[in-house]
Every structure is written in structure tokens, then in C-alpha cells.
């Protein structure tokens, strides 16, 4: 009697043998309750943070960081079109990252290399 | 040598974007390490804070996907450490981590 109850517990679909994958296969969690949704969705936070930083002076922009943002955005844009199925969600977030990174880099390059003769006059970014 | 050739030609090897995608994510870690030497005034609180949340989420993502992706987990665990450290440097420079003094310190 106790054995069969233990067996029932052991074999329950949401019991100790269950991995989260099989849980997700039985649809006990909706798509938006899973990290598979939230992690890629939060990648927008990086682009939003970068857009907020458009207002900062170019001296404060970091070359290594913006190169990493741009390179990641470009590479993952291609990745999302090569996998099966094509992942337009991932594509869009990485295109946005690449665009914000390129813009920040252009602002900093413009100040560092293209305005050397006009240091005293304000330059439009 | 043949193992190297097998890797170079594998469907997740260096000739494919499946390789370079995760490699690109290590760029954030390297950028963070390089920026550790910079003065804290140059750190962006927005970007560093976003990175802390981003890597925390992707550590869990790498753990939960099938198959489990230990390389991606290691990458985001490293980035989480670097970005948290940079965030603490930024917060300290902004005055957020000071003890309360009798004279109000902003």
C-alpha cells in the first residue's frame, strides 16, 4: 500500500524525476513564464541602456565595450537567420544592439579623430 | 591533427556562426576586464546595470536549454562577475556606498 503510493509520487509528471524540459513539454508553464522568453527579451535592456547613453558626452564612451556591443549585435543577427527556425525576435534585438553600438562608436570617433582642429568650438554629434 | 580538422569542419566549428555567436559574447567579458583599469567616472551605470541583469538571466538560460550549454554558462558567469565589480566601482564613485556621516553626504 505504502509502496504503491510512493511509486505514484515517484512517477508523477511534476515529481522528483521531472526535468524542467519535460515540464515545459507538458505546458505547465506558459512561454512568458520561462527563461527562454525573459533572457532574450531582456537583451533589449542593453540597447535601451545604450540609447540612454546617447546623451552622455563622448569622452565617457568606452571603445572596448561598444566594439563588443556592435560585434555581438552583428554576429548574432546573422546567427538568428541561420538557425532553424529563423528567430526574428533574436534578429531584431541584435540589429538594434548593432545600430546603437555603431552610433556610439561614430560619436566617439568623430570627437577623437575628426574634430582635432576645432577643440574650442562645440561640435554637433 | 585529424581531431583539429574535425573541429574546424564541424557544424558548430569556426566556419559557422554557431561558433562565433558565443565567442562574441566573450567580447563583453574582455571589454569589462580592459575597462577595470579606467577611472570610475568613465563607467556607464546604465550599461553596466543592464549587463548585470542580462548575464544573470542568460546564466539561467544556458543552464535550462537543451542541451545544457556549459560554455555559455561560463561566459555569462564571468561577465556577471566583471560587471558586478564595475557596477560597485561606479556606485562607490557616485557616493551610493558611503556610510551615513553626520554631515549629509550626497
UniProtKB/TrEMBL annotation, chain A:
Principal location listed in the UniProt entry: mitochondrion
Superkingdom of the organism of origin: Eukaryota
Cellular component GO terms held in the UniProt record: mitochondrial inner membrane
Subcellular location: Mitochondrion inner membrane
Any one Gene Ontology BP term: pyruvate import into mitochondria
Topology with respect to the bilayer: Multi-pass membrane protein
InterPro entries: MPC (IPR005336)
Name assigned to this protein: Mitochondrial pyruvate carrier
TrEMBL record, chain B:
Keyword flag Nucleotide-binding: no
GO biological process: pyruvate import into mitochondria
Record's GO cellular component terms: mitochondrial inner membrane
Its job: Mediates the uptake of pyruvate into mitochondria.
Localization per record: Mitochondrion inner membrane
Protein name: Mitochondrial pyruvate carrier
Membrane topology category: Multi-pass membrane protein
Protein source organism: Carex littledalei
Family to which the UniProt record says this protein belongs: Belongs to the mitochondrial pyruvate carrier (MPC) (TC 2.A.105) family.
InterPro entries per the UniProt record, alphabetical: MPC
Keywords, alphabetical: Membrane, Mitochondrion, Mitochondrion inner membrane, Pyruvate, Transmembrane, Transmembrane helix, Transport
Family matches, as PANTHER family: UPF0041 BRAIN PROTEIN 44-RELATED
Amino acid at each position: 500500500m505504502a509502496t504503491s503510493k510512493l511509486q505514484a509520487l515517484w512517477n508523477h509528471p511534476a515529481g522528483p524525476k521531472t526535468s524542467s524540459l519535460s515540464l515545459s513539454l507538458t505546458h505547465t508553464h506558459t512561454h512568458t513564464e520561462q527563461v527562454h522568453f525573459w533572457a532574450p527579451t531582456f537583451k533589449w535592456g542593453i540597447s535601451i541602456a545604450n540609447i540612454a547613453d546617447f546623451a552622455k558626452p563622448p569622452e565617457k564612451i568606452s571603445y572596448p565595450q561598444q566594439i563588443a556591443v556592435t560585434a555581438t549585435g552583428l554576429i548574432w543577427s546573422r546567427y538568428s537567420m541561420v538557425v532553424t527556425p529563423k528567430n526574428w525576435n533574436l534578429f531584431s534585438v541584435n540589429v538594434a544592439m548593432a545600430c546603437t553600438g555603431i552610433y556610439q562608436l561614430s560619436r566617439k570617433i568623430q570627437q577623437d579623430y575628426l574634430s582635432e582642429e576645432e577643440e574650442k568650438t562645440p561640435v554637433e554629434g | 591533427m585529424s581531431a583539429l580538422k574535425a573541429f574546424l569542419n564541424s557544424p558548430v566549428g569556426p566556419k559557422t556562426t554557431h561558433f562565433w555567436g558565443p565567442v562574441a559574447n566573450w567580447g563583453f567579458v574582455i571589454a569589462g576586464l580592459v575597462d577595470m583599469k579606467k577611472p570610475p567616472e568613465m563607467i556607464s551605470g546604465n550599461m553596466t546595470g543592464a549587463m548585470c541583469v542580462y548575464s544573470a538571466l542568460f546564466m539561467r538560460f544556458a543552464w535550462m536549454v537543451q542541451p545544457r550549454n556549459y560554455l555559455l554558462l561560463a561566459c555569462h558567469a564571468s561577465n556577471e562577475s566583471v560587471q558586478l565589480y564595475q557596477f560597485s566601482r561606479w556606485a562607490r564613485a557616485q557616493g551610493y556606498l558611503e556610510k551615513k556621516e553626520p554631515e549629509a553626504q550626497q
